[in-house]
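Need tokens for this chain, all 307 residues.
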Amino acid sequence: MDEQEIATKLQSQNLVDIKVVLGYLEKKGNLPHLKPILGKLVHLDDADIKAAGIKAAASIIKRALTQKFGEISCQSRKKLVSVLKTLDPTLVDTLLAQLESSEHSARMNAIKILGLIENDVKIKKMVNQVEKFKDDKVRATAVSMMQYNFNNVDIEQIFRFLNDSDNRVVANCIEVIENLISEKFLTVLRDHATHANNRVRANAIKALWGLGYDKIELYEFLKEMMTNEESFLMRASALWAVGECCEESDKKFIGFIEQGLQDKEKLVRENAIKAAINIGHRVEKKYKDAMHPEEYDAMKRFLDKIN
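Here are the structure tokens for all 307 residues:
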């Protein structure tokens, strides 16, 4: 359905046409369609059509907040979630239940929207009770929510999460710390830069880099990970951190990429390629030709597509 047909059907007096286009927009609509839908709702008397309009508008907002989160300004996000709460009074209950989904994407989508809702008693209660959740997966997901709404962040609680028994909780907690941009966490982040878990280490190094920590010491942290023969995940995570942090001018760190391109493990090589592409470093032809050039080409196409 093209834009002209959508506009024509929305302006129509034919209830069947209106219902058809609202059903389409529920699945395929985007933010520019929101205003015409909301304008139409004001003038609708038919209960079924009005319900379809509300459903379509709510779906468009949810889709925008979860799929285009980074492209929407903070102020616009808050306005959208305010409209969403008006359209769907059960929103908070539905999203809190979604935190227990077996699907990671469903949990993260719930987190992004919950994190935008301020001064909600149910959300505050959930955050305060996170430590009591027995399910590690749900606990880790709930901790992630803090990075989207700093109004719900309890500094003492963050320090407790850093000692959680589950590494996902600790890693997610470090992501929250990174976004707080506070030097009061420098010491604890440095301690976690030598953590036994690869993701925790990489997150800590990335957070330290963002706080302007000594690059000489950060280099040593990454070197230790890259020379870990027992865990290829350590090497892969080190390269992820390099790709997230470094610029082309960080020549010393570029050596880790060249090392990773020759690794025996495919995941390590892939992360080396991602890092090279992320920081705009031109991988020397000899490495591409000698080490799995088809992987480089496939990864480049994939990154171009998602970017």
